[in-house]
C-alpha cells in the first residue's frame, strides 16, 4: 500500500499544480471549475488507489462511477488524473481479477468514455475515442504480461515448495532405511557376540576350579569375540560420522577408518567361533562363493550368522549344525542376472534351550523340559532381519522345524551383477 499511496499522492499533487496553473494563467476556451468542487472530487477519485491490490474490482468501479461527476464538473480539461486512474484500474483488474471481469469493465469504460466524447467533443470524438481505446489496450497488454509473470512465478514457487517437500520426505525415508540397516547390523553383531561371550563366561566360571586350562581357553575366546564385536561396532559407528571425516580417516588409515564388511568367505571363521562356543558346525560351501557380489555376500554371511546364533541359543547342548551354501548360476551367466544363492542351515537340536543363555547354573547343565525355539516366534528380531535381507535381494526365506527333528532355515537370494 505504500507504493500505491505514493502514486495517489503524486497524482493529486500534479492535479493541484495543473489546476493552479490554469487559475493563474486562464485559457479562453477552457472553463476552470471552483476549487471547493474539484479538489474533493480529486480526493474521492484518488482515495481508493492505495486499496487497488486488496479490492481491485471495488477500486475499478469506484473510479468508473466517480469519473462521471468529475468530468461533468469540468475537471477533465484542467486535470488528467481521471485518465491515469482509469488505466491503473483496468491494469489492476486484468492482473488481479482475470480476463472476464476485465472485459466487462473495459466495455463499461468505453461506453462512459464514448458518451463523454460525443457530448463534450462532438467534432473530435472519433480521434479521442481511438486514443482512449489505444490507452486501454496498452494497459490490458501490460496487465496480461505482468499477470503471466506472476502466474509463472507462483508456479515456480509451488514447484520449489513441492520439490522441497519431496526432498525432505526422501531424506526422512533414507534416514529411516539407514536406521533399519544399522539396527540389523547391530543386532547381528551384538546378538552373536554376546551369545558366545555369555556361553564362555559361564563355562569359565563353572570350570575355573576343576579345569583351569579350559577356563583359560574360554576367557581367551571371550577376549577375541569381544574385540571382534568392538571392531564391528566401531565400523557401524563410523557410518554415523561425517562423510568427509570418514574419507579423510580412510585415506590416512586412521583408527576410525572403515573396514570391509564380512563376506561369505568369512563363514569358515564364523563356524570356528561358533564351535568354540559349543555348537558343532559342518560347512558345505560352493567353491565360487568368493565371486559373489559384495551385497549378496554380506547377506549370506548375516543370514548364516543369525541362524547359527539361534541354534547356539536354543538348540540345546551337543547340537550339530549343517550349513550349505550353493550358488546356482543358472542361465544368466551373460546378463546382469547371475542366478541365485541357496542357503540351508539345519541343526539336530531337541528343542531344549541352551542352559547357559537360558540362565542355567553352568555350561554342563541342561534345563529340564522342552523350550520354544525363538526363531519360530513371530516378530523376532533375528527372523525379521533375515527376512529383510532376503527381500532386499528379491529372495525367499523359510524357517521352521525340520522333518527329521531340529530346526532349519532356508533362504534363496537372487544374484545380480553390479550389486
From TrEMBL:
Limits of the Histidine kinase/HSP90-like ATPase domain: 296-413
Residues that span the membrane, as ranges: 7-27, 33-49, 56-72, 78-95, 102-119, 125-143
EC number(s) recorded for this UniProt protein: 2.7.13.3
Keyword terms: ATP-binding, Coiled coil, Kinase, Membrane, Nucleotide-binding, Phosphoprotein, Transferase, Transmembrane, Transmembrane helix, Two-component regulatory system
Family annotation (InterPro entries): HATPase_C_sf, HATPase_dom, Sensor_HK_TwoCompSys, Sig_transdc_His_kin_sub3_dim/P
Enzymatic reactions: ATP + protein L-histidine = ADP + protein N-phospho-L-histidine
Keyword Ribonucleoprotein tagged: no
Domain Signal transduction histidine kinase subgroup 3 dimerisation and phosphoacceptor: 178-243
Region annotation (Disordered) ranges: 337-387
Biased composition (Low complexity): 364-378
Coiled-coil portions: 153-180
Domain of life: Bacteria
One of the record's GO molecular function terms: kinase activity
Entries under PANTHER family matching the protein: NITRATE/NITRITE SENSOR PROTEIN NARX-RELATED, NITRATE_NITRITE SENSOR PROTEIN NARQ
Protein name per the record: histidine kinase
Species assigned in the record: Prauserella salsuginis
Amino acid at each position: 500500500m505504500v507504493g500505491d499511496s505514493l502514486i495517489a499522492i503524486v497524482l493529486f499533487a500534479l492535479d493541484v499544480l495543473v489546476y493552479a496553473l490554469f487559475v493563474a494563467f486562464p485559457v479562453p476556451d477552457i472553463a476552470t471549475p471552483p476549487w471547493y468542487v474539484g479538489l474533493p472530487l480529486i480526493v474521492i477519485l484518488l482515495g481508493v488507489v492505495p486499496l487497488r491490490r486488496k479490492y481491485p474490482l471495488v477500486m475499478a468501479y469506484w473510479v468508473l462511477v466517480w469519473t462521471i461527476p468529475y468530468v461533468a464538473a469540468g475537471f477533465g480539461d484542467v486535470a488528467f488524473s481521471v485518465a491515469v486512474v482509469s488505466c491503473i484500474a483496468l491494469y489492476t483488474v486484468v492482473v488481479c481479477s482475470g480476463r472476464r471481469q476485465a472485459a466487462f469493465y473495459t466495455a463499461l469504460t468505453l461506453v462512459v468514455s464514448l458518451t463523454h466524447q460525443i457530448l463534450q467533443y462532438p467534432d473530435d470524438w472519433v480521434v479521442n475515442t481511438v486514443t482512449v481505446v489505444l490507452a486501454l489496450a496498452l494497459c490490458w497488454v501490460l496487465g496480461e504480461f505482468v499477470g503471466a509473470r506472476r502466474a509463472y512465478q507462483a508456479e515456480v514457487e509451488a514447484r520449489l515448495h513441492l520439490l522441497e517437500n519431496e526432498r525432505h520426505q526422501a531424506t526422512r525415508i533414507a534416514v529411516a532405511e539407514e536406521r533399519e540397516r544399522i539396527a540389523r547390523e547391530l543386532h547381528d553383531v551384538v546378538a552373536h557376540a554376546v551369545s558366545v561371550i555369555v556361553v564362555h563366561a559361564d563355562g569359565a566360571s563353572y570350570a575355573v576350579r576343576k579345569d583351569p586350562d579350559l577356563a583359560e581357553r574360554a576367557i581367551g575366546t571371550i577376549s577375541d569375540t569381544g574385540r571382534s564385536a568392538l571392531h564391528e561396532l566401531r565400523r557401524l559407528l563410523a557410518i554415523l560420522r561425517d562423510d568427509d571425516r570418514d574419507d579423510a580417516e580412510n585415506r590416512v588409515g586412521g583408527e576410525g577408518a572403515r573396514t570391509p564388511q564380512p563376506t561369505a568367505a568369512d563363514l569358515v571363521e564364523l563356524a570356528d567361533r561358533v564351535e568354540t562356543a559349543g555348537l558343532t558346525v559342518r560347512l558345505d560351501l560352493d567353491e565360487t562363493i568368493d565371486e559373489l557380489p559384495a551385497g549378496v555376500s554380506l547377506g549370506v554371511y548375516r543370514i548364516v550368522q543369525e541362524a547359527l546364533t539361534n541354534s547356539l541359543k536354543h538348540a540345546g547342548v551337543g547340537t550339530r549344525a549343517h550349513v550349505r551354501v550353493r550358488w546356482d548360476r543358472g542361465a544368466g551367466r551373460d546378463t546382469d542376472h547371475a542366478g541365485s544363492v541357496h542357503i540351508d542351515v539345519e541343526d539336530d537340536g531337541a528343542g531344549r534351550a541352551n542352559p547357559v543363555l537360558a540362565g542355567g547354573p553352568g555350561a554342563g547343565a541342561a534345563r529340564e523340559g522342552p523350550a520354544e525355539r525363538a526363531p519360530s516366534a513371530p516378530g523376532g528380531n533375528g527372523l525379521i532381519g533375515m527376512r529383510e535381507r532376503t527381500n532386499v535381494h528379491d529372495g525367499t526365506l523359510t524357517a521352521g522345524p525340520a522333518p527329521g527333528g531340529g530346526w532349519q532355515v532356508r533362504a534363496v537370494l537372487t544374484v545380480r551383477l553390479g550389486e
